[in-house]
Amino acid sequence: MTHSAEVMPQDLLGLEIRVRGQVQGVGFRPFVWRLARDMGLSGDVRNDSEGVLIRLVGDATGFEDRLRAQMPPLARIDAVETRSLQLTDTVFEGFEIVASQSGATHTRVTPDAATCDACLHEVFDPQERRAGYAFTNCTHCGPRFTIVEKLPYDRSRTTMAPFEMCPACRAEYENPEDRRFHAQPVACADCGPRLWLHPPIEGDPVTNTAKLLRDGKIIAVKGLGGFHLACDACDDEAVARLRRRKHRPAKPFALMGTLEMIRQWCDVSDAEEAMLRDPAAPIVLLPARCVPKGIAPGQNTLGWMLPYTPLHHLLIDAVGGPLVMTSGNLSGEPQVIGNEEACEKLAGFADAFLLHDRRIARRLDDSVERVTPHGAMVLRRARGRVPGTLHLPEGFEQAPQVAAYGGQMKGAICLLKDGQMLLGHHLGDMDDALTYEAFLQADKDYTALFDHQPEVVACDLHPEFRTSIYAQEKGLPVQRVQHHHAHGAACLGENGWPLTGGKVAMIVLDGLGLGPDGTVWGGEVLLGDYCEAQRMFWLRPAPLIGGDMAAKEPWRNLLARLDQAGCGDVAETYVPQPALLGMLRKAVERGVNTTLSSSAGRLFDAFSCLTGFVGAQSYEGQAAMELEAKARLEIARYGQSGLCALPLPVSKGEIDPAEMFRRVLEGSEHGGDWARSPATLFHMSLAQTFAACARGLVTSGQAEAVALTGGVFQNALLLDLTRKALGDVPVLIHTKVPANDGGLALGQALVAAARHLDLDR
């Protein structure tokens, strides 16, 4: 690894350069080695627990500029710190790459990355020695976070440790001029992980799997962060069979195919193509020209991803068409990752299993994203994005180390350390015992992997959430953060809003969150900053008839809103069992299991039921997603121009949506815009009313900007309409952090840090 050169005098002044960021496992050291050699510099470079450390002797003019401009594709530099170094006791012979050093961890791990073009060429070139090899990778691609067990990131600290490199792979691994230099997962068919089909069939596993898929079979496929259940996306019966086996009647399935296959089903913009091709390779929601039977009932978008491992590329090529690729798990449970676990738990779903012997260090679901007129939107942050970090905003330089644990739904953990915010991967709903076990393991895992030692922990205000109970048991100071304040803080933090940047009007449209007044919030405008927030406007509360059942059966929310609007006489049309009406209304009257809530999510459910949604929701957000799809269909059919939104009345801060329900019922009798485009007008009215409330706080000087947050803002149409209704006031939106509860922990961590800093002043 040493480049020969003259021995340098021992009394020269050198430079020590500390590079922080995503700089391990991405080919950064060989890049530095080549750069130093090109510039005629001597010295060395190493990985350590803080990132990459470079020592240089010679004329280093322009070195840092080239370091930033020419770095490897997966590298991300957070900071470059340079200081003079007296080299009186050091002799360098050329420039050398030296062994890693351990210690307290201040660096970060690179997310898993989709197969690069160079590796893909090798996989499909019969002349290459890795032709057809399903685990081909290099420093520019392949598994990272799903295989690393300890830092610094070296092969002995990954799940590749059991695979001893053959001489050919070892030669690549040790050659700084090779793109596989110190690529920890480097392997080939002679020495690396192997693939097999269970039950076994003689012949090539990929070829046999492809034949089974073409024959209509369902296959459990082991990937990077867990298993997928795969079937031929063009086989309606296979798709229907998968739905029956998974007891998943309507939730959309994710699809995998080449870009050419995707274009046969969907329109793909340049921005959407770029998102698909990103090394993170997320599932991207795309507008569909048609939705094949069974793939995404009630929707007009499809979730597509490109093949992101050599195995996926080989499988898609062998099948010759797109595949359904849905998470391999029992309903509500985390994705399975072990071979034995998969064969046991997925036996009722899969006809066969495509397995390999590289152990998965941690489960990661596929990330889910979409492109809006205002940029990217992250719906689920997981594989390919985690454990990427964000910079802490200005003013948080002295923030303590903080651990935040999120809420009850869409669990994720957030750590603050060294000026960075690390939002962990999607875990799921804590109601499930196995998901909670995964949460406990994730906390232990992140704490050890990043040497995190929190001074304070943060959780939701709700005392009965499992994550809140866990935080209280940590034995550390606890900051309990109101649910929707945390959503607002997450949006501020993602956008780099300074700690002293002033107050912001936060439009928070969400499902359910306990308010400090003991009621259930979910649709409000807050005025606040990181430390505190005041509720200024809110949706008129309506009873959650039947408690938790209101989230599953939208007609319960419709009944509540119809009665409030004075239209209860038509309720029996929408209630599956009209005989229940008297009993349910009496429960509301007596306050039995009918908590009042201002939830925007439940308002969407009610209106979706009014405009055609029937029955119970088979997955969270189904009714609201179908309402958005219906609005887009109305806009495509009739257009949006000429429609007049209904300004909802606001009295003493309370926004009353009753008139929208009355208009739809009147429209069904008399025609007009509310009969033709009810879903569109609902979106427009809600957007313009909330925008007017928030904009007023800015124009009156009470707020400096408006933030749009909460799970309901994952509705891209509502986001666009609200953003436009706000006009020229500064607006903050989510583009890297989920607007839903998947981003909650980040907001909690920021609130906890801000309050801690405020106490220190």
UniProtKB/TrEMBL annotation:
It is an enzyme of class 6 (ligase). Residues 14-99 form the Acylphosphatase-like domain. It holds the Pfam family HypF_C. It catalyses: C-terminal L-cysteinyl-[HypE protein] + carbamoyl phosphate + ATP + H2O = C-terminal S-carboxamide-L-cysteinyl-[HypE protein] + AMP + phosphate + diphosphate + H(+); an acyl phosphate + H2O = a carboxylate + phosphate + H(+). Keywords: Hydrolase, Ligase, Metal-binding, Transferase, Zinc, Zinc-finger. Its EC number is 6.2.-.-. The active site is at R29, N47. It comes from the Bacteria. InterPro entries: Acylphosphatase-like_dom, Acylphosphatase-like_dom_sf, Acylphosphatase_CS, Carbamoyltrans_HypF-like, Carbamoyltransferase_HypF, DHBP_synth_RibB-like_a/b_dom, HypF_C, HypF_C_2. GO terms for molecular function: acylphosphatase activity; carboxyl- or carbamoyltransferase activity; double-stranded RNA binding; ligase activity; zinc ion binding. Residues 203-384 form the YrdC-like domain. The keyword Cytoplasm does not apply. GO terms for biological process: protein maturation. Pathway: Protein modification; [NiFe] hydrogenase maturation. Involved in the maturation of [NiFe] hydrogenases. Along with HypE, it catalyzes the synthesis of the CN ligands of the active site iron of [NiFe]-hydrogenases. HypF functions as a carbamoyl transferase using carbamoylphosphate as a substrate and transferring the carboxamido moiety in an ATP-dependent reaction to the thiolate of the C-terminal cysteine of HypE yielding a protein-S-carboxamide. Belongs to the carbamoyltransferase HypF family. This is Carbamoyltransferase HypF. The lineage of its organism: Bacteria, Pseudomonadati, Pseudomonadota, Alphaproteobacteria, Rhodobacterales.
